[in-house]
Write a structure and sequence with these properties.
alpha+beta, Maf protein, 35% helix, single chain, globular
């Protein structure tokens, strides 16, 4: 079993009643942890048990693939939290009908960015929520972006200065770095979708119950 980590938010965002004793995030993404903590006072982090690369071999259409991965991630931790609210999530990047995966090394990260430069690409982000063992909510949203026409030297420098980011994100960049490096033009899409965690509609549904 993976390690379970608990986080206590600094400010109360959503006071869970006895109906929601646990909110579980089936992910180890720091970005998703931080976004979830904006909405919930107390969460549990549990690493999912899904082999993403194996699932991607099936050539599922991107819109279905991103939701399938989010769903499988939530289901994978369900045996450990039968009475919890479990949130699975995923993000994929498509450029010119090609699925861009997380790079295995720095060389692949540079190659990915060289391929993306001066091209429109689509980030698809999904969440799938299980409540007390049953489906409760799902959402998939898209954002369209363009990587600026950067030189190879600029791309290589960015990757070498930000190796952790380059190796842990589907596009090998983070939108948070945009103000410093001027990497991306955002054509459409909200920030939660670009960050890979479109959770606002789910929170609104909970709040209005």
């Amino acid at each position: 079993m993976g390690k379970v980590t608990k986080y206590q938010g600094k400010k109360e965002k959503y006071k869970m009643s006895t109906n929601y004793p646990q909110v579980v995030l089936a992910s180890s993404s720091q970005t998703r942890k931080n976004l979830l903590r904006k909405y919930f006072e107390y969460i549990i982090i549990k690493k999912h048990r899904v082999d993403e690369n194996e699932i991607k071999k099936n050539k599922t259409p991107p819109e279905k693939l991103v939701m399938k991965l989010a769903k499988l991630k939530a289901i994978s931790v369900k045996p450990d939290f039968s009475h919890a609210m479990i949130i699975g999530s995923d993000q994929i990047l498509v450029c010119e009908e090609k699925l861009i995966n997380k790079p295995k090394n720095v060389k692949e990260a540079i190659e990915n960015l060289l391929y993306l430069r001066n091209k429109e690409h689509v980030l698809m982000s999904a969440i799938y929520v299980i409540k007390e063992g049953k489906f409760f909510f799902k959402k998939m949203k898209k954002a369209k972006l363009i990587l600026r026409d950067l030189s190879k030297n600029q791309i290589t420098s960015y990757v070498n200065q930000n190796r952790k980011t380059a190796l842990s994100t589907v596009g090998s960049y983070k939108i948070e770095d945009n103000s410093k490096y001027g990497l991306i033009i955002v054509k459409s899409g909200d920030i939660e979708t670009i960050l890979g965690f479109p959770i606002k509609d789910f929170f609104n549904k909970l709040k209005n119950e």
